[in-house]
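Project outcomes to date are best conveyed with an example. Our students and postdoctoral researchers have been running inverse folding experiments weekly, and each run begins with a structure described purely in tokens. The record below, which covers 338 residues, was selected by the lab manager from last quarter's runs and is presented without edits.
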């Protein structure tokens, strides 16, 4: 079995949120040519997408081409709408979650789904998490690396993470609203530099903020192979050791201790880096993830894992499906017997 834990989907038909809510900033989708559409933020072009972004039949054809048995569907982070009024983000979250649930229902042995929640409001987030689990029967949630500038160790966000642990809802953390500003506008810097840095901030916030101490049973996975965190682990760990007065304020957990507690997708684009990540985390905590259907993802899903001769069969099986099942808390049989 091959399970891709990192794939994005969106509906072709999106309500005119600006008209409904009375202010701008929301994403819409406008068909541009056959099988293509433009994501627009108000009247400004954001990104062109192909029909595999919304058409589940096309998606399944491409899954078959690359021998992917199951995709875990999540929304595109720009649709989180954390910046919007909380009650409006609650409405948009419900809409996108309903669409993901419908997509899963269209092929229940091929798709699993992660919902989105209005993280700017604790009560509404928990309310939607309960619906995601109990009504929509989705497999978990996707959240951003920061919520309007608040890192994930912010006390205001803790009740949401605590509820996720209590409800046994897995979390996928995806970078968004990237730091860097004008300095990273050129050369696709937000995606190449700021995204990995965002994930590093998210991981270190959860570790140094003591969140993982308080929530030891939280099932959490980080996108893009953990971003820059594995590559800068030595520096971060050294700082932890030499400046405990600045870093060991809320926890005595070493940054290295995070490995074996949290999950990572395999999207490193580099065999040496993937081998290093598996060495650090263990293959039981690294899952095939491709960022399908976007060009910065792995264009031949699973090829990198397959290409590494040092990975034995058990390691490859862990990376290709077993770690994903462990993270999601399900079995192969539960998927196949849907």
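After processing, the design step wrote out the following sequence:
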């Amino acid at each position: 079995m091959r399970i891709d834990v990192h794939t994005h989907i969106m509906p072709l038909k999106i309500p005119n949120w600006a008209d409904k809510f009375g202010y701008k900033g929301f994403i819409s989708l406008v068909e541009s040519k056959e099988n293509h559409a433009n994501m627009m933020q108000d009247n400004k072009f954001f990104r062109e997408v192909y029909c595999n972004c919304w058409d589940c039949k096309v998606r399944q054809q491409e899954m078959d081409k690359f021998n992917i048995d199951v995709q875990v569907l999540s929304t595109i982070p720009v649709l989180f709408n954390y910046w919007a009024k909380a009650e409006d983000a609650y409405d948009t979250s419900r809409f996108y979650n309903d669409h993901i649930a419908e997509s899963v229902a269209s092929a229940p042995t091929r798709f699993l789904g992660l919902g989105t929640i209005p993280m700017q409001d604790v009560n509404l987030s928990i309310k939607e998490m309960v619906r995601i689990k109990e009504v929509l029967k989705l497999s978990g949630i996707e959240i951003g690396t920061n919520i309007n500038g608040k890192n994930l160790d912010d006390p205001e966000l803790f009740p949401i993470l605590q509820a996720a642990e209590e409800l046994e809802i897995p979390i996928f953390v995806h970078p968004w609203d990237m730091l860097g500003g004008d300095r990273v506008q050129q050369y696709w810097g937000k995606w190449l530099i700021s995204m990995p840095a965002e994930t590093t901030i998210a991981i270190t916030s959860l570790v140094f903020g003591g969140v993982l101490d308080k929530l030891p049973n939280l099932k959490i996975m980080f996108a893009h192979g953990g971003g820059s965190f594995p590559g800068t682990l030595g520096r971060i760990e050294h700082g932890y050791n030499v400046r405990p007065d600045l870093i060991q304020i809320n926890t005595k957990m070493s940054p290295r201790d995070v490995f074996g507690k949290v999950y990572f997708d395999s999207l490193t684009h580099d065999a040496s880096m993937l081998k290093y990540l598996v060495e650090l985390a263990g293959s039981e905590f690294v899952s095939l993830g491709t960022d399908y259907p976007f060009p910065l993802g792995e264009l031949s899903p699973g090829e990198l894992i397959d290409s590494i001769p040092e990975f034995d069969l058990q390691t490859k099986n862990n990376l290709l499906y077993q770690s994903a099942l462990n993270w999601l808390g399900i079995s192969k049989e539960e998927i196949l017997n849907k």
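Residues 124 and 190 are 30 Å apart (CA to CA). The mean pLDDT is 97. The training component of this project remains on track.
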